[in-house]
Design brief:
By secondary structure, this protein is an alpha/beta fold. The protein has a single domain (2-16, 49-392), classed as TIM Barrel. Helices cover 32% and strands 9% of the residues. The chain has 15 helices and nine strands. The strands form two sheets. It has a seven-stranded parallel sheet with strand order 3-4-5-6-7-8-9, sandwiched between helices. The protein has a two-stranded antiparallel sheet with strand order 1-2. Helix 6 (143-149) crosses helix 7 (167-176). The longest helix is centred in the N-terminal third of the chain and has 20 residues, at 52-71. The chain is globular. It starts with a helix and ends in an 84-residue tail after the last strand.
Length: 408
């Protein structure tokens, strides 16, 4: 699937090369000019320019060699386990520290002073308060579940990449409990305009695009999520006015929209700076399981840890927020203190969804005793799988991490 999507982007924008100043400031890009005889999004470039896919492959290969050389011995060195900073899991690199501007300084600078605060996007407001945000993942149509978990979490991660839900399923769930609390956000199948348009029209105020490999995909994610003058979102119908009644939606939604891109490949790691420098991107997070799968490195491999630190440093340098899909990164890692966003994780108010049937229960098993919330009918969220940590255990624990549990 990814190769098909990459080929489509390459065919549409084969000669687009974003120009990013990587030494000073948040980056400057020259906007490509569209011509009447080109498909929308395509641009002219000088002959002989290296195709972007080849360039990305070369960058990724160079990154692998640099990371392996840094650890002195390739896979043999990686097998020895991650380097530690005291009791923290990390690599050979030390994560950069924020200066007086803090995290998200560029994101904050782009907000219209006239936009009312606090944001009606709860997750974005908490980020601006320098707090970590957690979510509950919903992958099937279940309006009762949505109405309950939306009371307790910062945002809801509607899963449209790895589920068979329809856009209308998501629309109907959101409309069931307007103003429930958590910001409705959607992990998209891709960064195509048609899909982002559907997500925003149905009332989502957060877009999460997976497997972003370069600034082109980051640019599309940002511009199709917001209205002009900044973005390219089309004005049309939808249920967004029902989801957000009583506000000037058109004037405020650009600032309330939380645009998140996921880096999940070594190509993405190699291009982390140009991705983070893209205007309109608010959060850069790692797809931890896929990055492990695509790189071949376990998550406790120092090369893997160095890769996520590179992404961490890029997000900090360009004034964005940083996160990891794996909730295990909330604690125990050298990047944990700066991890502002995860998929799943503990509810902010300590609420815990009861286990449906308990550990190891199968069909026909007696339901678990009811707890806080909706009794035994509330399933635990589908967590980001963990590769490289036995049983999915968090650092310093002996039990596997469970999604949606209260803060200890």
């Amino acid at each position: 699937m990814k190769s098909v999507r990459s080929a489509r982007y390459a065919a549409r924008n084969a000669n687009f090369v974003p120009v990013v100043e990587l030494r000073n400031g948040p980056g400057v890009r020259s906007a490509p000019k569209e011509t009447g005889d080109q498909p929308r999004g395509a641009v002219h470039a000088s002959r002989g320019r290296v195709p972007r896919l080849v360039l990305a492959a070369c960058l990724a290969a160079s990154l692998v060699m640099v990371l392996e050389a840094r650890q002195g011995g390739g896979r043999a060195a990686g097998a020895a386990g991650a380097a530690t900073n005291g009791s923290l899991i990390g690599g050979t690199l030390t994560p950069a520290k924020a200066d007086a501007r803090g995290w998200g300084w560029q994101v904050k600078s782009e907000i219209n002073p006239a936009t009312p605060r606090p944001f009606y996007n709860k997750a974005k407001e908490l980020l601006f308060q320098d707090k970590q945000i957690t979510s509950y993942t919903i992958s099937t149509y279940n309006p009762d579940l949505y109405c309950e978990v939306a009371k307790h979490f910062d945002y809801i991660w509607f899963e449209m990449q790895h589920s068979t839900m329809s856009w209308d399923d998501v629309r109907r769930m959101i409309l069931t409990c307007v103003g429930a609390g958590a910001a409705p956000m959607i992990r998209m199948p891709d960064a195509l305009e048609a899909n982002i348009q559907k997500a925003t029209d149905l009332g989502a105020i957060g877009i999460i695009v997976p497997t972003v490999d370069d600034a082109l995909e980051a640019r599309d994610t940002a511009r199709f999520s917001r209205y002009p003058p900044f973005g390219r979102r089309s004005s049309g119908g939808g249920s967004f006015n029902q989801v957000w009644p009583g506000i000037d939606y058109r004037a405020t939604v650009n600032d309330n929209m939380l645009v998140t891109v996921m880096i999940e490949t070594l190509e993405g790691v190699a291009n982390a700076e140009e991705i983070a420098a893209t205007k309109g991107v608010d959060v850069v997070i790692l797809g931890n399981n896929d990055l492990s799968s695509f790189s071949g490195w376990a998550q406790n491999d120092p090369r893997y840890q160095d890769a996520i630190i590179k992404v961490h440093d890029a997000a900090l340098k360009y004034g964005k927020y940083y996160g990891n899909a794996g909730q295990q990164y909330l604690t125990g890692y050298t990047v944990s203190a700066d991890t502002r966003m995860v998929q799943n994780g503990p509810a902010r108010d300590g609420w815990m969804p009861p286990r449906a049937g308990g550990a190891g229960a199968g069909r026909g098993a007696a339901p678990a005793p009811a707890g806080r919330g909706r009794g035994g009918n509330t399933p635990e969220p589908e967590a980001e799988p963990v590769i490289g940590l036995p049983g999915g255990a968090q650092p310093g624990t002996s039990a596997p991490a469970r999604g949606g549990r209260g803060r200890e």
